[in-house]
Every structure is written in structure tokens, then in C-alpha cells.
Known about the structure:
Layout: E1 2-9, E2 13-19, H1 24-31, H2 35-41, H3 46-62, E3 71-73, E4 79-81, E5 87-93, E6 96-102, E7 106-112, H4 121-124, H5 127-130, H6 138-156, H7 163-166, E8 167-169, E9 179-185, E10 191-200, E11 203-211, H8 213-221
Antiparallel strand pairs: 1-2, 2-6, 3-4, 5-6, 7-11, 8-9, 9-10, 10-11
Amino acid sequence: xxxxxxxxxxxxxxxxxxxxxxxxxxxxxxxxxxxxxxxxxxxxxxxxxxxxxxxxxxxxxxxxxxxxxxxxxxxxxxxxxxxxxxxxxxxxxxxxxxxxxxxxxxxxxxxxxxxxxxxxxxxxxxxxxxxxxxxxxxxxxxxxxxxxxxxxxxxxxxxxxxxxxxxxxxxxxxxxxxxxxxxxxxxxxxxxxxxxxxxxxxxxxxxxxxxxxxxxxxxxxxx
Length: 223
């Protein structure tokens, strides 16, 4: 297993990305799982077992918790660390595992670049977003818009969100070395996000940080 990225930024936020190369034994030797965790692990298929173990390894060893963190999910399935004020978000794609923590609500998404996303783009891209997607370079925009909406959904942490109707991404220009834009959730009380994205090897990395409306308006106004 190798550390590929370790990013620190405002709100005591930290994001780590690891490439998973070890077998499950590497993680099991380090994590000291409880009986309940071991029983839960055995209910997962092998791919999910490795994802679960890798994310817990990152949380325990890289993200600054003084004691072994206990990660649970709330009634909506959103992960949280017991007895910690830090928000947490987790993402996996093929051999990559990503974990992000922050003092504010966040979401992270990593995706391997694949042509098949074109088949579902119509399900999550709304009319306003279609208008700024260039015809000669659609795939990065599909991945970034999907990733941004997935991040906002993870941050919100509730069900019954329609990506096309309830999550709106402001116009951006794709730059593979990284860029910043905004998005908002319009289901119930509106929520606003600063979103960062970049191409990372053959992956698209996107993460969202919840901001207040004034910050959103000021930021969006200078784009």
C-alpha cells in the first residue's frame, strides 16, 4: 500500500489517497478489530472487504485520531466517527481508497475514467449543466459533474435526492491540473458547496466543502 496524496487545507480538513496493493492480512494485523467488526466483515464480498479494511486503516493511521476510531453509520447510512466532532467521507475506485475529514460537512468522490458514464449522463445532468459542456470533450465534464453531485449527496447524508432536480452545479471550465467551482442542494433547506476537482492519473478526484450562502454568492459572482 502506498500513500499517493496527503492534502491539508482550511477547516482542519485533510484528504488522503492510497493505492491498495496488500491482501487483507496486512490490514487485519494492524487494526485490532472487535468481534462485531469481524462478524460484519465476514458478511461482505471480497472486494467490499478490502475497501472496508483500507478505509479503516487510513482513518486509524493517517488522520490524526489519538485512539482507534470507531466508525459507525447513522440511520441514513452516512459514516461518522464516534465521539469526534470531525466529519468524514470515504470513496473507493478500483485500486484507490480515499478518506477525507473536516470540521465542516464534506463529501469526496474518486472515479476511474470510463466511457460508460456517457450512458447515464442524461440521468444526472440538468439543462443548465448541458449548456456549458463542450461537444468535443464531454467525458471529463460528465465525470466531474457526477463526482460533484455525489460529493454533495454524501455531505447531505439523506435519501431521496434526485441528482438532476435537486443538485445544481455552477458553470466551470475543466482544467486537468485542478480547479474550483460551486454547487448547491435545493432539497429542503438549501445547502451550498465549494467544490474542487482534478484529474489524478487515470482518475477524477472531486471533493466538496459546505459553505454559507454569503460565501457561495461571493465565490460564484467572480467565476
